[in-house]
User: Which sequence fits this backbone?
């Protein structure tokens, strides 16, 4: 199970990098609709959040709602389980607080969209309500797991053997359509090895790399 989560993180991490460029992209807009006077706990990276939400497109059409299902949505904040717009827009939130998020596509589902309800390059509007904030599981320090010789640098060999270990688990977890391993390594180095010295430093690494959040 743990490995399955790791490969998810790695796969999500390099794929997110593929769609995020450095051009001046529109920012996330966050509006607080209502906030309790007393806040028992503010959400932070790594917390489990229980949320109600309604998502609409710019033309007002609704694409998803937890209210309709009558079941709030639970996820761990800040670790890439949800779209970036949620990970960024639901920080410092109090239980019962309501917000409206306007999420540009690069922090949502990108150029490809999702399913038949979210078109390519869609701006997403979410009205969200925080039901509860709780402790999340300890995150995995992926950097440390890849860095087999502990020199604080990731070589191609280290990334490659890490991926090799994860592939069977990924297959078991039903993750399909992974690029070939060598291609995946190159893809990762293209995006992560910013100074192109053949190693990914701790600073360059954009995946999970801290023991504590
Ligand atoms: Ca190393
Ligand atoms: Ca480097």
Assistant:
């Amino acid at each position: 199970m743990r490995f399955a989560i790791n490969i998810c993180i790695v796969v999500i991490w390099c794929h997110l990098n593929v769609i995020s460029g450095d051009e001046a992209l529109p920012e996330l807009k966050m509006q607080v609709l209502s906030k309790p006077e007393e806040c028992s706990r503010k959400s932070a990276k790594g917390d489990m959040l229980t949320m109600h939400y309604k998502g609409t497109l710019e033309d007002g059409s609704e694409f998803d709602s937890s209210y309709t299902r009558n079941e709030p949505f639970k996820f761990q904040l800040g670790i890439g389980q949800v779209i970036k717009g949620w990970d960024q827009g639901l920080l410092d939130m109090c239980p019962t607080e309501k917000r409206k998020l306007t999420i540009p596509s690069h922090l949502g589902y990108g150029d490809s969209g999702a399913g038949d309800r979210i078109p390519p390059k869609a701006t997403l509007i979410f009205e969200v309500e925080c039901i509860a904030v709780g402790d999340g599981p300890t995150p995995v320090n992926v950097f440390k797991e890849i860095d087999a010789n502990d020199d604080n640098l990731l070589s191609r060999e280290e990334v490659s053997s890490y991926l090799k270990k994860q592939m069977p688990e990924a297959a078991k977890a039903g993750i399909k359509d992974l690029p070939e391993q060598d291609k995946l390594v190159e893809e990762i180095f293209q995006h992560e090895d910013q100074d192109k010295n053949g190693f990914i430093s701790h600073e360059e690494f954009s995946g999970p790399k801290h023991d504590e959040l």
